[in-house]
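User: Predict structure, ligand pyridoxal-5'-phosphate.
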Amino acid sequence: MNENLLNRSLSAVWHPCTQMKRHETLPLVAIARGQGVWLYDFDGNRYLDSVSSWWVNLFGHCNPRINAALIDQLGKLEHVMLAGFTHEPVVLLSEKLSELAPAGLGHCFYGSDGASATEIALKMSAHYWRNNGKPLKTQFISLQNSYHGETLGALSVTDVALFRDAYGALIKQNATVPCPDWREAAAGESPEDFALRCAAALEQHLQQHHQHLAAFIVEPLVQGAAGMAMYHPIYLNRARELCSQYGVHLIADEIAVGMGRTGTLFACEQANISPDFLLLSKGITGGYLPLSIVMTTDHIYQAFYADDTARGFLHSHSYTGNPLACRAALATLDIFAQDDVLHANRDKATFFNRIAQPLREHPKVRNFRSTGMVWAFEVDTPHADFAQRCFSLGLQHELLLRPMGNTVYFMPPYIITEEEIQMLVTRTLTIIKMLS
Ligand SMILES: *Cc1c(COP(=O)(O)O)cnc(C)c1O
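Assistant: Predicted complex:
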């Protein structure tokens, strides 16, 4: 069964972000079922999903409460178009998110995945300026090493060479500004001082280019795909002030960092700011179904409100606001409330940091860092193919580890137990010793 499935997958399925030829030597892993933090293959081997299946799963695989909500919803309504129609899950979810999000974000626009949320925010921002008689404001800025998705518009604000270079001719050129990642601070400079220095560079850019700038898009606190780069929240405070001062929208891409990942429900809360647009996806459905949400202010909403169709926001996806996905999101938010998850995660993170002390102190481990329920570090290794070796050794040790280059990170589901944390850390240390 297993062998057969792997071969059929390799001939029929084109896997994402993958050089398919590599699978001549590196076997695929066929997963039969999941339970909690564990994924099980067809031979009964298990793997601890330490990356929450690309950062989406919050409360474990096959979560009974999310399953029950979806089964209930399946018996009522699986889908209806959201233009001209509405339904209970999308209304409840929009109201609930507006209640929970930073102040002023009272309108929810729906997309299908993270990249579509980025597209929506970019279009909405530029269209806002056009509706306000400023059609020249069509450029965007992002941080160095930013990641906001891989569709063409999203790639125009994504600063990852590997993802961009082959498609450069198709992509609008937008500028980047210095990234406050504290690993780049000068010797003796604090993360806070470095963040302020980067904010000064942002100010200079805004001063020179604001007439052509629609928005600044940023991953608050942690730049995920850059290798879990972390920075001081003061950067967000300054970015908020400067964007307001220069008339440029601030887009907070909380696709990865939202939903409690950084310790607060939304990362922006740690700087006590409200962006003009807040993007959610990934964990919003607990990792069950694709859904994304662009939250924005009444001020922006009103700029589109008119008799003229062309002044309205012109964007749709077939599955916009899918009821099953919204229902999974509501069940996910219920778990946050019922289990006081943010509070429990604080204790879990403290425990994790204590257990991870030997990892932090290992001589080949550098820049050990954490924010909320994200941990990362670099490994000094002689192996150019470290990431692949680490992945393979991980599987042999019942772990799903997926390093980015020589950066190892953990972004586990929040239901991970102390025993599972211990196992994850101890076995990772064993693997690091084998590879350094
Ligand atoms: C994953 C991610 C996206 C893109 O989401 P997809 O669902 O993969 O399209 C955008 N921004 C950030 C910060 C992400 O981590």
